[in-house]
Amino acid sequence: MGGNWRRARTSRRPCDDPRDRPSFRPVGCRHGRARRRRTGGWSLTALTLDRLACRRGGRLLFTGLSLDLRAGQAIRITGANGTGKSSLLRVAAGLLAPFGGTVVREGRTALADEGLALDRDLPLADALGFWARLDGRASRLAPALAALGLEALAPVPVRMLSTGQRKRAVLARAVLSAAPIWLLDEPTNGLDADAIALLERACASHLEAGGLIVAATHQPLALPGAATLDLTPFADAARARTMAEDDDD
Ligand SMILES: Nc1ncnc2c1ncn2[C@@H]1O[C@H](COP(=O)(O)OP(=O)(O)OP(=O)(O)O)[C@@H](O)[C@H]1O
Q1: CB of 239 closer than 6 angstroms to any ligand 1 atom
Q2: Which pLDDT tens digits describe the chain residue by residue (249 residues)?
Q3: Span from the CA of 230 to the centroid of ligand 1 (angstroms)
Q4: Domain architecture of the chain: domains with CATH
Q5: Cβ(140) to ligand 1 under 6 A?
Q6: Residue of the nearest CA to atom 27 in ligand 1?
Q7: What is the pTM of this model?
Q8: ipTM
Q9: 210 C-alpha vs ligand 1 centroid, how far in Å?
Q10: DSSP states of the chain as a string?
């Protein structure tokens, strides 16, 4: 996952199609700017996707997706396999260039996906500690391990972790990162009920502190004040656009 963790950068690219108009704004929630000021968290946190289109493998996956998230807000992204949820997160993280539209990130970004990026031969605490030191967050290692119930696994080599334990380690990195923007790709994959409860608590704390969360998930995930965005209509719009362009040829 080392390649998936990036300092915030702002990318702007003109939308190539003014027809891409539908927008989605999550409802405001009680975790807002006032709370961020109270917690003394990040100075500015926002993620704005404007008329985003994504193309992969020569195929337009979705188009016309707009989203504006501020401090304390969260959204769940749903949609059938292959609609482009993971791709959307990669575009939002700045790892994949949008085909159309713009992405503006205000704040550092942590993408927690299937990648692990922890030294497999190190004990978990040392492997996570490597990143914690890089981020100047060594003192937060123990709380991050505790947040995902990993204390007992601290001395266990990463290669010996189970699927769910590895997923918890990935999520612990998000907690440890101090990045206000969390992009979580199928965060509940492999987690048992207790671990999901811990994840939900960690997410609630993050929002309370003025962070924001985008979670692509097929599973229920309780996120305070979160709306749900179904990617299907945006994938349908992409299909319709592709068909119209084919007809024009
Ligand atoms: N590196 C890549 N190169 C080309 N095409 C890709 C690449 N990665 C993904 N795709 C394609 O993009 C489409 C969307 O994939 P993506 O993983 O974003 O969907 P998803 O909605 O997250 O799916 P799932 O629910 O199965 O996780 C798929 O058809 C996939 O084959």
Answers
A1: no
A2: 333 444 333 333 333 333 333 333 333 333 444 444 444 367 789 999 999 999 999 999 999 999 999 999 999 999 999 999 999 999 999 999 999 999 999 999 999 999 888 999 999 999 999 999 998 899 999 999 999 999 999 999 999 999 999 999 999 999 999 899 999 999 999 999 999 999 999 999 999 999 999 999 999 999 999 999 999 999 999 999 998 887 776
A3: 16
A4: 10-108+179-249 (3.40.50.300)
A5: no
A6: 81
A7: 0.85
A8: 0.97
A9: 31
A10: -GGGEE----B----S-TT----B-PPP-SS-HHHHHHHT--S--EEEEEEEEEEETTEEEEEEEEEEEETT-EEEEE-STTSSHHHHHHHHHTSS--SEEEEEEES-EEEESS---S-TTSBHHHHHHHHHHHTT-GGGHHHHHHHTT-GGGTTSBGGG--HHHHHHHHHHHHHHH--SEEEEESTTTT--HHHHHHHHHHHHHHHHTT-EEEEE-SS----TT-EEEESHHHHHHHHHHHHHHHHH-
Tell me if 55 CB under 6 Å of ligand 1.
Answer: no
Residues contacting residue 160 through CB under 8 Å, at least 6 positions apart: none
Pocket test for ligand 1, best of 56, 63, 81, 219 (most atoms within 8 A of CB): 56
230 Cβ neighbours under 8 A, 6+ residues apart: 78, 79
Nearest CA to ligand 1 atom 12: 56
